[in-house]
Amino acid sequence: MAGNHSFLPGEFSVRMERLLGPEEAEAFFRSFEEPRTYGLRLNTAKISPEEFERIVPFPVCKIPWMENGYFYNPEDRPGKCPLYFAGLYYLQDPGAMTPLSRLLIKEGDLVCDLCAAPGGKATAAGARLGPEALLIANDVSSSRAKILLRNIELAGIQNAFVTNEQPSRLAERWAGCFDCVILDAPCSGEGMFRKEESLASDWSVEKTQRLVPIQRELLLCAVDLLRMGGSLLYSTCTYNPGEDEEAIAWLLKERPEMIVKEVSPYEGFSQGLEGDTGNSQVRKCVRVYPHKMQAEGHFFAVLEKKAEISSRVQPGTEGSEWTLEAGTKKQGEAKNRKSKKGGKTKNREHDPEKLILSFFSEMGIERIGNCAWKPDQIEIREDKAYYIPKASREGKLALSPGLRFLRHGLLLGEIKKDRFEPEETLALALRKGECRERITFGVSDERLLKYLRGEPVFLEEKDFPEGKPPKSGWKLLCVEEYPLAFGKLVGNQLKNKLPLSWRQV
Ligand code: SAM
Predict the structure, then answer these.
(1) Active site residue: 115, 177, 187, 237, which one?
(2) pLDDT confidence of 346, banded at 50, 70, 90?
(3) Is the CB of 69 under 6 A from ligand 1?
(4) 325 pLDDT band (50/70/90 cuts)?
(5) Which phi and psi (to 5°) does residue 18 adopt?
(6) Which residue's alpha carbon is at the smallest distance from atom 20 of ligand 1?
(7) Residue range 209-227: mean pLDDT, rounded
(8) Pocket residue to mutate for ligand 1, from 139, 211, 300, most atoms within 8 A of Cβ
(9) Class at the top of the CATH hierarchy for domain 95-313
(10) Which of 94, 285, 292, 310 gives a 20 to 30 Å CA spacing to 431?
(11) How far is CA 19 from the centre of its chain?
(12) pTM here?
């Protein structure tokens, strides 16, 4: 058993044998001889499974316990496919995509993901939210928060507030506000040993123990953020009961208003281990083991806040001001959509709003992300135009002072003197058919990758369905009709307008 896998730490192997019993432990250790699993999760806000299966240029196989997950072969390199750059799927281990698939999220929910980077669970949640909803995607690490933002943008999520904060600061401001809170906690990563052997060499009992108080503090923040009746998803990628069931049992004691809920079953799921916790509720937690499912190891539990019994913090109060990275906004300014620079209104010859409206009208854009767009949701900050989520405009969640954030809403583009230049983020937020002025290439057309590398591309006769080249100007380049990037057509040349930061090398 463990002896065949010298990279596994001895104390870890002994504990796993004790937890699983000799027979199951043998199957568990044997799974380390199997290759790791590779999965992609479809962004169903952009594409249906049927449509994806029709256009995907490499073999995929449905993950049986998920509605929108597929196994793929790593040699096919789906991270290099234009469909990936159109944000149609996210590469994620099948185990890691499982917890979110069991959390019930309603279209209009306010959702907070406390430890969200790089965004696997936040983008899955965002794909299920409608235009009334708001997603707070937070990560305490500023470098990881930037990656989180990129993945939110790629997924085309327009109603997100991406923050870079200590979870306790969010809990102080937004106590009792959220319908769903996701806590995918920092953990000892034992479930990833097969995927990344280096994690095993870095593992020690002491390190796992050091994580326990951090996870418990985060759990309290998560409960504080929930409204009555709201749901908490707690997950880790470790098998250590101290970070899993014992954390849940501790929370149930600490916060008696919380109960563990049953989740939609799957034959490969293993129930939570009651162990010495003395609480049978933890059996409703789910363990994902690689010897029982084609997935890396995971643990998760869905809990509900039954009643408001205790809270360390007062329910959130209406915030009157909020701080931008590049300056401070005072009350009322959020509604003033005039551009400001250095505190003064910039004298412009051209009204930025009119420039945006005329761009949208010329492009034939009437909807963004399956919803008719509304001019009153546009906000100009410095020279950038943003589309602000309806929920924050209506004050469903008070954006309180001093929060460090990377993005509020959708970056539409930039106001440059007398014109509006659309951003890549706008292209990615548009759904199939939401822009009239488009050029579409088949998924295997090499010009798509050329364009993504930053090169111009040339249209050919076969690209003109009407028999003549389209008129010059801004165009939305699409892959199989799915928006990919903006470009400017001059004659038959599509000039590359992809920002450097979005180019693929
Ligand atoms: N949910 C993410 C996903 O699905 O892509 C993965 C989250 S990862 C398991 C845990 C995250 O917690 C890391 O991004 C890390 O920066 C953050 N983190 C680490 N220590 C933390 C702490 N003390 N408080 C809050 N977040 C922390």
Answers:
(1) 237
(2) low
(3) no
(4) very low
(5) -65, -40
(6) 186
(7) 98
(8) 139
(9) alpha beta
(10) 94
(11) 33
(12) 0.93
| 3-state SS assignment for residue 30 | helix
State whether the beta carbon of 121 lies less than 6 angstroms from ligand 1. yes
Separation between Cα atoms, residue 156 and residue 410, nearest integer Å:
9
Q: What is the Å distance from ligand 1's center to 244 Cα?
A: 15
- 157: closest CA among 182, 114, 123? 123
What are the residue boundaries of the structural domains of the chain, listed by start? 95-313, 321-329+349-428, 437-502
Interstrand relation of 405-408 and 160-163 (parallel, antiparallel or unpaired): antiparallel
CB 362, CB 422: distance < 8 Å: no
Residue that the structure tokens 């896998």 belong to: 5
Using an 8 Å Cβ cutoff, are 43 and 89 in contact?
A: yes
Pocket residue to mutate for ligand 1, from 123, 136, 140, most atoms within 8 A of Cβ: 140
Q: Is-catalytic flag, 237? A: yes
Which among 141, 183, 174, 153 is positioned nearest to 392, based on CA atoms? 174
Locate 286 and state its tokens.
């789910």
CATH number at 437-502? 3.10.450.720
Residue 74 gets which letter from DSSP?
A: G
pLDDT in the model for residue 469: 80
Give CA–CA dist 172/170, Å, rounded.
Answer: 5
How far, in Å, CA of 154 to CA of 137, rounded? 14
pLDDT exceeds cutoff 50 at 343: no
Identify the CA nearest to 68 among candidates 95, 108, 36, 101. Answer: 101
Does residue 344 register a pLDDT over 70?
Answer: no
Rounded mean pLDDT of 140-144? 98
Contact status, residue 242 vs residue 249, Cβ threshold 8 Å: no
Let me know: does 403 contact 173? Beta carbons within 8 Å.
yes
CA of 185 relative to ligand 1 center, distance in Å: 6
pLDDT digits (tens, 9 = 90+) for 229-239: 999 999 999 99
Question: Is residue 120 helix, strand or coil?
Answer: helix
Residue at token pair 């169903």:
44
* Ligand 1 atom nearest residue 124's Cα: 4
115 touches ligand 1 (CB under 6 Å): yes
Q: Which residue has the tokens 């997924």?
A: 155
Q: How far apart are CA 463 and CA 465, in angstroms?
A: 6
Q: Name the nearest CA neighbour of 484 among 87, 91, 152, 155.
A: 87
- Structure-token match 């998920």, residue found: 66
